[in-house]
Design a protein that fits this description.
Strand content: under 5%
Oligomer: single chain
Largest sheet: none
Mean pLDDT: 83
Radius of gyration: 15 Å
């Protein structure tokens, strides 16, 4: 694998880790996760949507990780391109909500 390919695999692995981190954060502290995204959540019904987000983020993270481990580069490439919608959308929604920056 060339340098460009290793870089792409590294980015896909980082994306998988980020999605799993989001899933863990949303599952363990739904109120805190929503607040970090700049969302005001006042009811337990609204917090259940954070749990749904956590499950979907976990699925994407695990799928990306599995493709990296299985060395399924073509499938990983297509999934990584499609999955960019989620973290980029998260960042855009967080920015639009005026959330403070967290590193």
């Amino acid at each position: 694998m060339n340098t460009f390919g290793r870089f792409g695999v590294g980015l896909a692995a980082a994306m998988a880790a980020y999605m799993l981190f989001n899933a863990f954060s949303a599952w363990t502290d739904p109120q805190g996760f929503a607040t970090r995204l700049g969302l005001v959540v006042t009811s337990s019904d609204a917090l259940s949507w954070v749990g749904i987000y956590a499950l979907r983020a976990a699925f994407i993270g695990l799928l990306l990780g599995a493709l990296v481990l299985a060395r399924q580069w073509r499938a990983l490439f297509l999934l990584a391109i499609a999955a960019l919608v989620m973290p980029l959308g998260d960042a855009l929604l967080t920015y639009a909500a005026g959330s403070p920056a967290y590193l």
